[in-house]
């Protein structure tokens, strides 16, 4: 299958910007270069081109790669690449793992362009002719002092940890950071909700206080009305007693007048 068609199939109805891993192993490269890869793959982190040599002349260069600012791992192993590494630093600024094993690299000088890489961590050159040179490992580490692992071993000949485990660990850390951010947002939202609830409670308390004051005011008015009613009743009773006394006085006066008339007769 040619490379362009394979890229189309690998997209699986995604946009290029959504793709983080792209595997084009065993594809055909009719002109010896990468075909069909666009600069729109801006979030690509892993790109594999293993054994792209089924068509003649096979993959002989990666010089026509587009700029992939987030690419970390490039694996064009088991091909016929012999040069064309001078563009790596410019087009792949965040490249950390480069696997060129099984290619046609013969001289240490072929690797000089890799010196411009900012953060190379691992370089694999298994089954390349350059590995047969005297002091091969020492020469490569001297050429690339920022390199951590060469062919799976560091300067002290200690084996590199499993690369997949490292990638998984990085992804786990990213997931943990995202979860912490989400938890922080949830906590902030909960605090805002609690604040709103407290404001509502305060408003309810204020309403209750206002209602209580209104009730007290009404009760006071009713008491005043009650006192006024009692005062009116007392005044009515006093008026009745005065009228009775007046009538009683009039009756006595009439009686005295009657008695006086009888005496005169």
UniProtKB/TrEMBL annotation:
Keywords recorded for this protein, A-Z: Leucine-rich repeat, Nucleus, Repeat
Gene3D superfamilies associated with the record: Ribonuclease Inhibitor
Residue span of region Disordered: 153-265
Xref: InterPro entries: AN32 (IPR045081), Leu-rich_rpt (IPR001611), LRR_dom_sf (IPR032675)
Places the protein is found: Nucleus
Basic and acidic residues compositional bias, start-end: 248-258
Start-end of Acidic residues biased regions: 154-247
Pfam families attached to this UniProt entry: LRR_9 (PF14580)
Keyword Glycosyltransferase in annotation: no
Family assignment from sequence similarity: Belongs to the ANP32 family.
PANTHER family: ACIDIC LEUCINE-RICH NUCLEAR PHOSPHOPROTEIN 32, ACIDIC LEUCINE-RICH NUCLEAR PHOSPHOPROTEIN 32 FAMILY MEMBER B
Purpose of the protein: Multifunctional protein that is involved in the regulation of many processes.
Protein name: Acidic leucine-rich nuclear phosphoprotein 32 family member
